[in-house]
Fold this protein.
Amino acid sequence: MRRTRSSRFRLALLVLTSLILITIDLRSEGGAIDTARGVVLDALGPLRSTSTRIFEPIGGAWEAVSNYDDLEARNALLRAKIAELQNSVLEVGEIERERKALLSLLGARDRVAQVGRRTARVIDAPISNYQRTLELDKGSRDGLVVGMPVETGAGVIGRVSAVSVTRSQVELLTDPNFDVGIRMVRSGDDGIASGQGQNRELEVSFIELDTVVIPGETVVTSGFQGSTFPEGLLIGTVVDVVPNAVQGTQRITVHPAADLDRLRWVQVLLFYPEAPEPVIVDRVPTDEVPDLLTEEPAP
Amino acid sequence: MTLASREISRLVAIFSTVLLIQIAVVPHFRIAGYIIDLPLIVVVLVSLHLNPPNGALVGFVVGFAVDLVLHTPFGMTALTFAIAGYGTGSVAAQLTERNILTRSLAVALLAASATSLFACIGALIGLEYVMRRELGAIALVTAGSAVPLTVLVAPLVRWVFPPETIQINE
């Protein structure tokens, strides 16, 4: 009896210690725990880089064998996508020209183009199923700070969640804790996109019922003042819209533009949320746009 | 009873190797897109040869080390592994005399329960780390990988705990 009580007491002590550690970690930013993790991350960095070089090809072969059907379907999907993209390249070029003309007429800077970028290699995948982060081979000595947006050529993949001297961690777009302010390109309405877990689409909330949203519509970051993301970064495209009459909003499902499964190289945007005054581009009513475009800009 | 220094040093050797394998190798060989939780499975396997408090202690220490490399809240893995070690130690007496298949299935069940516990703790402290569909798949992969791993790691566990030193028989 005494032994059982003593063993329960020891378990209670360990549970209590763990709970204290969890509380300290959740309530402190950049404390001793983060420092210790940074040191371990730096120390293990070379091992992880080397193991990635060695095991990545073998792991790729393993995946090809174990997920052959999935790869075949993905291959077919990519071929279809290439054909689709080839058709839309000309259209995109035209839209980009119009966008630049509008921005220049409105006297606004193209913030996304002006933000510096740091290219980083994804040196390892998450080591646990409960961790939705990637590790990059760039850290604070390369100018990275927590909160910076990370993207590939295809679109946003997440944000920097932890930084050590030589390494950093990226919280993925699909992480259930990930939220970002977005704008529906067609209507110009703003909402919040939230991650729903690995291999799941994003969910957009706060889009009103009377806003017309169509599948295929592009979703970009809204870049509100104080946001950790600049305006205009590509998030994804709408795949489903379900009206919620009770809440007076729509539940919009968005497919991320970037492929989060096979990331090798990414770009970290050196965007500082505390940077002075983000430029707010005044919304121009759509019926005024053609006039602006046809007019000659003032000298 | 406390662990003998020989057992402690062998446990340190095994768990250091397991952690390095988990960090460097395991993420590259996923099953259905999910990662095998090797440290958890080995904690359960080792705790089968320990009494509940020592199982909890070993689980806590290993979980603490895992917490240093994971970016989930610090202490969550230590808490989960400590409870898993205690729970395994509590049922160990009923399993040591059984054949390897029964033990493998028990380890699979305990490891799957422990990985679900981790998600529940996350949900309790307001962090939704996994959605329901994922949790089922993760538990299934953990359980499925625990069966062959029990057989593979069994000789190492016997190396740490030769039959005459098993604590639960005291």
